[in-house]
Design brief:
mainly beta; 16-stranded antiparallel β-sheet; 3 helices; 4-stranded mixed β-sheet; elongated
Amino acid sequence: MDSDDDNVEEVVEGPLDDDALPHGFCTVTYSSSDRFEGHFVHGEKNGKGKFFFFDGSTLEGFYVDDALQGQGLYTYEDGGALHGTYVDGELNGPAQEFDTDGHLVFKGQYKDNIRCGICWVYYPDRGCVVGEVNEDGEMTGKAVAYVYPDGQTALYGSFVDGELIEARLATLTNQENGRPHFSVDPDSPVYSYDKSTSSCIAGHKMLPDPYESQRVYVGQSLISGAGDGLFAKTDSDADTVMAFYNGVRITHSEVDSRDWSVNGNTISLDEDTVIDVPEPFNLTENYRASLGHKANHSFSPNSKYDPFVHPRFGPIKCIRTIRAVQKDEELTVAYGYDHEPSGKSGPEAPEWYKQELREFQEREVGRGAKDTC
């Protein structure tokens, strides 16, 4: 992101002055394969210009006496972008950073190319961490907070490089010039980082998530024979995170080697890891730190599974609505079993799912026949 350049010029394309220095609009290619296109005055960058770096990233803005000054745009090789303020070629001042989809991932200040002051770091799931960074630009301190996707519910306390150490429930009450103000619940339990392993689902199994507790409850499912179900506590809009799916972390090969009867609460996290809520933790009297595993399947769901970076559990899945839901409505998701696995004649799924799939397909055929009459 630094616009200074110590490379030796190799090729200059464009007008030269009497001393054979770039003068006017020129393209200069350096020995590192970096390239600069812009205006020069007697060999120094002056005016609008853009660096094209060898790794695919770029930096553009207005140069004065060979240094970038004012607003600059650094575009990463993956398409993400940082809009920042430059002084003498270095980031100094307000900055905002966006991912490849244009979502805000950072908002704050820089000093000499290092983050400083109050900074906000946003996750793709719309949760964020906010606080005053240390001298190395890290989100480390005793007055840092994780803010849930609702923009109000928070965990306020000690963090190290953005990772929760211990915090209490708080509410983000307001912001003044980017500086947040929190009201901390003095009677709140203490929350700490509690990422699961292959053998331990959580250190505090009966400590509910405060955000989830506001939005869902477990009750008797309205689906015949399904047992428990997950229900909305309040009316919620589409695209609302409702619950979290934490569990022990096991491998895909372990899941594939087991009988379907013990895979009822498994969900793929990524290509390496599966999250599982095994017995006896499938019962709320034994585990209630997260409730996402209580959502039942539907071929016409109102919610979906999404990746989520949780302050306590780390990378997990969440349940996010795909349409507006009403208070006391049961939340359902599509379990997503493979309907056409390679080398097999039918879905790779438990028997109950295969039966429901056949009934659903028959209903769809019947509905299609009525529509053509």
